[in-house]
From TrEMBL:
Domain FAD-binding PCMH-type residues, every copy: 103-284
The protein's name: Alkyldihydroxyacetonephosphate synthase
Species, as recorded: Planomonospora parontospora
Taxonomic path: Bacteria, Bacillati, Actinomycetota, Actinomycetes, Streptosporangiales
Record site: Important for enzyme activity: 319
Keywords of the record: FAD, Flavoprotein
Nucleotidyltransferase recorded as keyword: no
Catalytic residue list: 453
Similarity comment: Belongs to the FAD-binding oxidoreductase/transferase type 4 family.
Family annotation (PANTHER family): ALKYLDIHYDROXYACETONEPHOSPHATE SYNTHASE, PEROXISOMAL
Pfam families with a match to the protein in the record: FAD-oxidase_C, FAD_binding_4
Record-listed substrate binding positions: 396
Cofactor field: FAD
Gene Ontology molecular function, alphabetical: alkylglycerone-phosphate synthase activity; FAD binding
């Protein structure tokens, strides 16, 4: 077994990512937000960590003693900082509550197991004492996936999987690696790169999310057109449940009944705790080519993406920003080739692989994009996107501090329904918020359809939590009515349960509840999350 040499750094407790990268907005940008959206500085500033209000720990002493007996006293933490850092995820409502000092959803204790056997025993103890268990990876959920129902339970434990951070084995003949779920994505890539391998999974949460979180939420990375979604990479897994162990996946494909891996993938910790993942890996690409293209309209750009997704060649990265996102993202046209002056919509296309193969694929795709009305902008926009691909959440923190409400939501639909879904969500957000700035991009493409990822910016009202709740409800209703899925890669959590129930129907809900009852009879695993 190998562990990473690079330590996983703690995330900013009240925001996103590296605390050193938190920055105030420049004054000209503040002025622009005030003029365009009416954004004003908030009346109160964010509290300090030691000012967060926490409920008194509720776990009985006997339970704490039993938990310590499994993992050791040093791996059960009840201090305020440990509890605060495992409180909720990183959605805008999560951060607004934390910044206001509301730590009411904090776990009573943080437990760090070091093996599958320890996880099994911890689940047995918690089920026996009716203690809710929230599996915790990187804390990057943006759909309420880390906020359990507390009522009816003796307490809440955050099961932090950070100690399960090893590369267990690599089968280079089959190109499969076994890794533990607590590995953050950068550490997993470090371990694999030492062997010339990569997962090729680079979502915006890459710097802090864990492999277990990717699997539990069906994550999709920015290079999904080439490498596939994370659930495509999972060839096998081990999960601990209150009823015992699930060991799933013994061949690349199988006709031996329904694929039970799919029960665990996307289950968000409600059915079990993933303790090991067997993942398809690829060679580290010898070449990476990124470039930008401009299309006159979003509709024409979407048609071009559909053409490549259906007929090829398919780039490794393929993204299309609408007119508004292009305008805002190209605020410094000198840095990315001058596309802002011409308007239109920006496409980022990237090609990874062996040098000759990547170049040949790029040339064939460029011929197709040109024939479909695209204008090549060269490598500038592609390089700028690659270097800033993980920066957006940091900007959100700065905007929140300046008095703006900023949030994202995403969906997916078949190509034929994409224009209707795009219009429906935008209209719903405008109807709920007045005159917000609504941006959108297509970030994941398939032969049959694509995802839509929206970013919304508006001035904070006197009650920003209620403000966003109304907007989110309107957007969810619009997605369901327009035939889209409630989530393409963020997951269900608590925020999407109602819409998820509408998507799968009454019988589908009964099936989920049946699985939950069989694997988790006491209902202690992430209660209130996923299951309608």
């Amino acid at each position: 077994m190998e562990i990473p040499k690079t330590a996983a750094e703690p995330m900013l407790w009240s925001g996103w990512g590296d605390p050193a990268r938190a920055a105030d907005l420049p004054e000209p940008i503040r002025g622009l937000l005030a003029d365009l959206l009416g954004v004003r500085p908030p009346e109160t500033t964010a509290v300090r960590l030691d000012e967060v209000r926490l409920p008194a720990p509720a776990l009985p002493g006997q339970v704490l003693d039993e938990l310590r007996g499994v993992v050791g006293p040093g791996h059960v933490r009840c201090d305020d900082e440990a509890r605060i850092r495992r409180t909720r995820g990183r959605s805008t409502p999560d951060l607004l509550r934390l910044r206001a000092g509301d730590g009411s959803d904090a776990p009573d204790a943080v437990v760090l197991p070091g093996s599958h056997a320890e996880v099994l025993e911890l689940l047995r103890i918690c089920a026996a004492h009716r203690v809710a268990v929230v599996p915790f990876g990187g804390g990057t959920s943006v759909v309420g996936g880390l906020t359990p129902v507390r009522e009816g339970f003796a307490g809440v434990v955050a099961l932090d999987l950070a100690r399960l951070n090893r590369l267990v084995a690599v089968d280079t003949e089959s190109m499969v690696a076994e890794l533990e779920p607590g590995l953050r994505a950068p550490q997993a890539e470090e371990l694999l790169a030492a062997r010339g391998l990569t997962l090729g999974h680079f979502p915006q949460s890459f710097e802090y999310a864990t492999l277990g979180g990717f699997a539990a939420a069906r994550s999709s990375g920015q290079a999904s057109a080439g490498y596939g979604r994370f659930d495509d990479m999972v060839v096998g897994l081990t999960a601990a449940t209150p009823r015992g162990t699930l060991e799933l996946g013994r061949a690349p494909k199988s006709a031996a009944g329904p694929d039970l891996r799919q029960v665990v993938l996307g289950s968000e910790g409600a059915f079990g705790v993933i303790t090991s993942l067997r993942l398809r890996v690829r060679p580290v690409p010898a070449a990476r080519i990124y470039e930008g293209w401009r299309f006159p309209t979003f509709a024409e750009g979407a048609a071009a993406l559909r053409r490549l997704a259906q007929d090829g060649p398919v780039p490794t990265v393929l993204r299309l920003s609408d007119e508004t996102e292009t305008m805002v993202g190209l605020a410094k046209p000198g840095e990315i080739g001058g596309a802002a002056a011409e308007g239109g919509c920006l496409v980022i296309a990237g090609y990874e692989g062996e040098a000759a193969e990547a170049a040949e694929r790029r040339d064939r795709a460029a011929e197709a994009l040109t024939g479909l009305g695209g204008t090549c902008l060269g490598p500038g926009p592609g390089d700028a996107w690659e270097h800033g691909r993980y920066s957006a959440p940091y900007l959100r923190d700065s905007l929140l501090a300046a008095g703006a409400t900023v949030e994202t939501l995403e969906t997916a639909v078949f190509w034929s329904g994409l224009p209707r879904l795009y219009d429906a969500v935008r209209l719903a957000l405008h109807g709920a918020l007045g005159s917000p700035l609504v941006m959108c991009h297509i970030s994941h493409v398939y032969a049959t359809g694509a995802s839509l990822y929206f970013t919304v910016v508006t001035a904070q009202s006197g009650d920003p939590l209620a403000q966003w709740a109304a907007a989110k409800r309107a957007a969810n209703e619009a997605i369901v009515a327009a035939g889209g899925t409630i989530s393409h890669h963020h997951g269900v959590g608590r925020d999407h349960r109602e819409a998820y129930a509408a998507e799968i129907g009454e019988l589908g809900v009964e099936v989920l509840r049946g699985i939950k009852e069989r694997l988790d009879p006491a209902g202690v695993l992430n209660p209130g999350v996923l299951i309608p």
